[in-house]
Amino acid sequence: MKKTSIDRRRFIKLGSLASGGLVIGFSLPGQSLFTQTPFDCEYFQPSAYLRIDKKGKVTIFVAKQESGQGVDTALPMILAEELDVDLRDVNVEIAPYGTLKEGEHDTGGSQSVMQMYDVLRKAGATAKAMIISAAAKHWGVKPEICAADNGTVVNTANMARLNYGDLVCDAAALPVPAEVGLKSPKDFKLIGKTEKRTGLKNILTGKTKYGLDTKVPGMVYAAVLRCPVQDGKLISFDDSALKDMKDVLKVVSYKGTAAPMHVRDGVAVIATNSWTALKARDLVRVQWDITVGKGVNTDSLFKALEERTKSKPQIQVFDKGNVDKAQGETFTAQYSEPFLAHATIEPMNCIAAVNGDKVELWGGFQLPDWAVNTIIKEFGYKKENVKLNLTLMGGGFGRRLHFEPALEVVKIAQQFDKPVQVIWDRVDDTRFDAFRPASVHKLEAKLDKNGKLLAWQHHIAGPSISIMTEGPDTKNLAENLGGADKDFWYDVPNVRTGFSSVNFNINRGWLRAVEICVNTFAVESFIDEIALHLKKDPLAYRLSLLEGRPAFDVRQYGTIVKQEPQRIAGVLKLAAEKIGWTDKREPNHFVGIATHSFIFARAYAAHAIEIEVTGDKKFRIKKIVGAIDCGLVINPDGLRNQMEGAIVFGLSQVLKGEITVQDGKVAEDGFYSYELLRFDEMPPVEIYTVDSKEEPGGVGEVGLPTVSPALCNALAAAGMRPRNLPIRKDGYSWS
Amino acid sequence: MASITLNVNNKEYTVDADPDMPLLWVLRDKLELTGTKYGCGVASCGACMVLLDGAAVYSCQRAVATCVKKKITTIEGLSEDGTHPLQKAWEKVGVPQCGYCQSGQIIAAAGMLNKYKRPTEEMIDQVMSSNLCRCGTYHRIREAIHIAIEEINK
After folding, report:
1. CATH classification of A298-340+434-734 is 1.20.1050.10, yes or no?
2. Among residues A272, A273, A274, A233, which one has the least CA distance to residue A253?
3. Which of A169, A474, A601, B85 is deepest in the core (most CB within 10 A)?
4. Whole-model pTM over 0.80
5. Is A200 in contact with B91 (Cβ distance < 8 A)?
């Protein structure tokens, strides 16, 4: 079996494969669904992405997994644009698992629009070309004189019209053209104009079904007691307290598994309803061997990380010029960031029905192929015997790249003859997350006597994600938390970055913007510190390091991507203008700014934050401005919603979020101890977009990384410099 | 185990359930009204909110036996066809991202508007801080609430 591994590089590779040519769904081998014969024309389905029935009803199948980022609207918009149909008449469905090439369902890295833009335009244009050909044939005219118009074909010679639905049988009989023309962007009717979310009405009336809402006939529910310490062992359990509970059906135990998912040893209570399963679980008495957790504490980890940054990095990630030869004043700073939980409001869950050598699953997955391939590998099912039904997700943020619930529920369902849904309660969801790793950053700059920035060194120490998912021999150490594996946007002649992995026994995974977020906090805080140290305006100082710097190629995650310093300067200037950077401020009001590039999603963003200082380490956020340049925007309101939401996500991180571990056990157990930003803490926000004709980029993660440093830089402008997240750790408070 | 009769969305349901079972789980697992969401089970997120005689409550905190002879309204029954002023305002503003918390958010706001036709900003802050949105749609929720307030006071 091929090693199943996944990382951001894979998103990129799949993206370039999928958009690299004429490959669209219908050319897949073995996908009989899409091989239509002239006699089989209930509907016309020229590719995996759309179907048109005889009534003209268009169904668009969304390849990417919806978890709130709006792919259920942006992706159908792209296809509907080229197909020339009204989005309001379109039925939107999740592309069923297995109808796409391996990897094409994968959702992460803010890649969905980038990966699908060309594919969906071609899919829409191809279907339209075939329908037009069918109409032309019907009328006995040349296709060139026919035009598509909102679900109909018009014969421009006599203005006769045929609905798409009238043409599906004829179109299905035609050969698929190898090449089709695409619209000129100036003719776009949908792309670039705000559309309401396609599933909006269902959300507002409670009809939308997420994973946890999925009901399968005969299903039962399971709650699991998991070993509180990773790699601990189940010794024994006693379920005698449950013997009179009529709704309890069975108690089963299972052994955990190691990488990639680190499922813990567990005891599962299966019951007729969720509440009984959860309640009865608390009555099971379990003996664990948790000696492996002794001494695994975040306090000591931070000390170890700090110590580790004092010596040479384990791996050098990027090196330019010669930092050792740079002579001048040394300026250093250290920053730290904690473990973070994803805290999706829909907790983890999954349904499995095991029937002999077959298994069927229901749930939300960001990387469904990784889940299915791992199930095949770990349980020995044949590929054709694993069926997966994808559901919507009540939040993803990288949490559902991981799929421990799927592995758990198969272990449970193998011991019970009905479909079982495993339900994680909030405590489980908080304590057994795959946490965004903690890190300590040491930065060192060399400044010549005129204040010129000669050299930049950045050493990150933290527990790696790739060691967790791929094991200690991972080749992706630099990529999954190294992060700074490229020249950054500021023009510094000598740059060296490195990463040191420090082991820590807790499960780790990707959280929205992961390493970009982690590194941007340190980088954008440090550049700000240098500016203040040199008594320069932090905005002007940044712009001076960007000025005139041409675009350059950088290698990231095995792909060449473009770094465009002038687009960085563009978002910086936009954010600064909108916050009124040079305006005279009220007393005790201060502004901070930060920027970054998210170049593997071809996007750039900046935040400017105005605060009012109300006392020592006390402040109020007055306003946050977000600016983004992600090329051509598909759905402007969708973009704004993502950017607004990223501010909230970012504020939770900078102000509050922290997971701590004591003797291998996570201390936080839900929203009372792992707090998220609440409604009354929401400051006024404004989002601005650079009007761009560049290729569309990503959005979902792009608005997150600069929130924390912009706020810390505003505090620094007021004479306070937070260097550890969350800032309340160092006594900061807000109102 | 007891036979319990509930009035949910103006419909009578008789369920066989433990009287202690929280209303949330009766709605979700017994009646399959899954518009009411589970998020925490401990009144910290508000995803489970329903109207009990018009007031917004955490259905995860209400034993089903205490809901007998009360009018229970879930998101599915807030309006016939999604045209409650709050639903219309939510639609106009385009509030949701993942949408999972939004039924609880709308119910929390509906409970508030049932009681106060013109809540102050402080009241809105206080009431809506019971409900978490991880996607971060607070900014839009506030805007939508104000649109709904205008609508009901027309």
Report:
1. no
2. A233
3. A601
4. yes
5. yes
